[in-house]
Design goal:
The protein has 373 residues and is α+β, with helices and mostly antiparallel strands. The chain is 17% helix and 43% strand.
Length: 373
């Protein structure tokens, strides 16, 4: 094997493929990254029997071949190389990488022992890559991270005709996003629970594509795949029942407050400087202003006032600061609308575009924190 590839191209490809490498592999070879080169392509692959990644990039191939190397080490090296073309070649039982005046020699593993990656299921349809990547990121922030509750560590993907709905919750907040796609079958109706971390990390890699192909296997295979311009990933679906989330979203609200997304985010970051870990931030919604407060008693306190547009009665409510920041950052709109029914009940965040139109294709429900007294 002998190849030459641009350093940035190699580093990005290796990082994307290596993201799925297991921390504690059941077999040593699963910690490896498979490199395949022929006259037509240069491909990097990773697979741990649950998630697979495969990426093909442009490279100059003077000699084909296949080799398996430590994925983490290869990723660390590729990221640290100088900004010059990288040449790789096999020297005995090692892969030798040369970049400028840097030379690395990586031990290799037997590539024939590496498991075969699962084929991509039949394509079910396509969606614009930017829409897909941004939608997944908006929802993934609300997914749980407790493996003891596997149903909360996934993103529910619901497909009805030309609409896809993504939903994730960790019990303290809920994010829901709807967007259109181009299904091969306009009557398609299905749902799947995809590991949130896998979907979120994989979706980032499709931002430079024009579209993403979405592929669903049969219920028996429980596999979902995504592909876009040289990148392909598959994942096993979670075998768990996602909570019935739609009933949590209120059908109406008694009050709404429109506030500058960035202004509220900045104020929140300043005020929370005096708050102890997990201490809620109090928000007092008044006719023309929002007062943010943190800290009590003899400890440090902070207060900041920003403007808003309020419809309905004002109220005082408290939120976990980190959860509120996640929601504001995910709205993707210059103005955020907070909708309330009562101070003791969840609030819903949605975006208001520059034309003043409320876009409820994304909704972020957040539970309030009960204040003493």
């Amino acid at each position: 094997m002998k190849f030459q590839v641009e350093r940035d191209v190699l580093a990005e490809a290796v990082a994307w493929a290596a993201r799925t490498l297991p921390t504690r592999p059941a077999q040593p070879m699963l910690a490896g990254l498979l490199i395949e080169a022929d006259k037509n392509s240069f491909t990097l692959s990773a697979f741990d029997y649950e998630v697979s990644s495969r990426v093909s990039v442009d490279a100059g191939i003077s000699e084909g071949g296949k080799v398996l190397v430590s994925g983490k080490l290869f990723a660390d090296i590729a990221r640290s190389l100088p900004n010059q073309p990288v040449t790789g070649s096999i020297n005995g039982s090692r892969l030798e990488l040369k970049c400028g005046r840097s030379v690395f020699a990586l031990p290799t593993l037997p590539p024939d022992d590496y498991p075969q990656l699962p084929p991509l299921p039949k394509t079910s349809g396509s969606v614009k890559a930017k829409t897909f990547s941004e939608s997944v990121a908006q929802v993934a922030v609300a997914a749980g991270r407790d493996d003891a509750l596997p149903m909360l560590t996934g993103i529910r993907v619901e497909i009805e005709g030309n609409t896809i709905t993504l939903a994730a919750t960790d019990r303290y907040r809920l994010a829901v996003k709807e967007f259109n796609w181009n299904p091969n079958d306009p009557k398609i109706s299905t749902a799947a629970l995809v590991p949130a971390r896998t979907l979120a990390e994989g979706a980032k890699g499709f931002l430079n594509s024009s579209e993403v192909l979405i592929a669903l296997a049969s219920d028996n295979d429980r596999l979902m795949g995504f592909e876009g311009e040289g990148r392909r990933t598959t994942t096993r679906l979670l075998d768990a029942e996602f909570p019935k989330y739609r009933s949590l979203l209120p059908s109406e609200s008694s009050s709404t407050a429109d506030v500058s997304t960035q202004e509220l985010l900045d104020a929140l970051k300043r005020v929370e400087l005096v708050a102890e870990r997990n201490t809620p931030i109090r928000l007092d919604f008044k006719k023309n202003e929002l007062v943010l407060r943190a800290g009590t008693g003899e400890e440090a306190t902070a207060e900041e006032v920003i403007g808003l547009t309020l419809e309905g009665e004002g109220l005082e409510i408290a939120f976990n600061a980190a959860y509120l920041k996640d929601g504001l950052a995910s709205v993707n709109a210059p103005t955020t609308r907070l909708s309330f029914t009562a101070a003791s009940k969840p609030a819903v965040l949605s975006g208001v575009n520059s034309d003043g139109v409320n876009d409820e294709s994304y909704r972020y429900l957040i539970m309030p924190v009960r204040l003493a007294g």
